[in-house]
Amino acid sequence: MARPRNPLGKAKTEGRDQKDPQRFKKRAEPSKNGPLGAPPDWMGGEQRLVWSTFQTEIPWLTESHRALVEIAVTIRARLTAGQDVGVQALNLLRQCLGQMGATPSDASKIAVPDGDEEDPDEALFKR
Predict the structure, then answer these.
(1) 120 Cβ neighbours under 8 A, 6+ residues apart
(2) What confidence score (pLDDT) does residue 126 get?
(3) Which pLDDT band, with edges at 50, 70 and 90, does 102 fall under?
(4) What is the DSSP string of 37-77?
(5) Can you tell me the distance from the alpha carbon of 97 to that of 95, in angstroms, rounded to the nearest whole number?
(6) Gap between the Cα atoms of 58 and 98, Å rounded
(7) pLDDT of residue 76 exceeding 70
(8) Which of 43, 66, 102, 107 could bridge across to 47 with cysteines, CB 3.0–4.6 Å?
(9) With 60 as the cut, is the pLDDT of residue 35 above it?
């Protein structure tokens, strides 16, 4: 079984990103394909509050995450309202958070190329 990846923050603290910069080069902030935006119209007051909480807690969310955020907001709003939430719903929330990169181990896997870098293959495809 492969060893788990070191988060970028840990690698910077230990100086590993200096020793082997290629390994950590692509681990950066995710690309912005548009902001997450406002919650959908169908969401109520508590859900809208949870939506803004997710925007604060997970700042790299974009509009491509909207469906996952809607699922996560629905479950988390039930939790904050004190409603009974089953194990399956909590597991689904955990999966959504993992897919959005909201867990420490998943956040280390988020990689976005820098906008300043030039693609090495670009010279081959220029006309």
Answers:
(1) none
(2) 59
(3) confident
(4) -SPPTT--HHHHHHHHHHHHH-TT-BGGGHHHHHHHHHHHH
(5) 5
(6) 11
(7) yes
(8) 43
(9) yes
94, 68 Cβ separation under 8 angstroms = no
Q: What is the structure's pLDDT at 38?
A: 92
Of 24, 6, 106, residue with least CA distance to 65: 106
Residue 4 carries which side chain, given as an amino acid letter?
Answer: P
Rounded CA separation 10/24 (Å) = 11
Q: Write the single-letter amino acid at 69.
A: V
DSSP assigned state of 100? T
Give the tokens for residue 126: 């220029």
* Rounded Cα–Cα distance for residues 68 and 34 (Å): 15
pLDDT of residue 112: 47
The SS3 assignment for 35 reads: strand
pLDDT over threshold 80, residue 52? yes
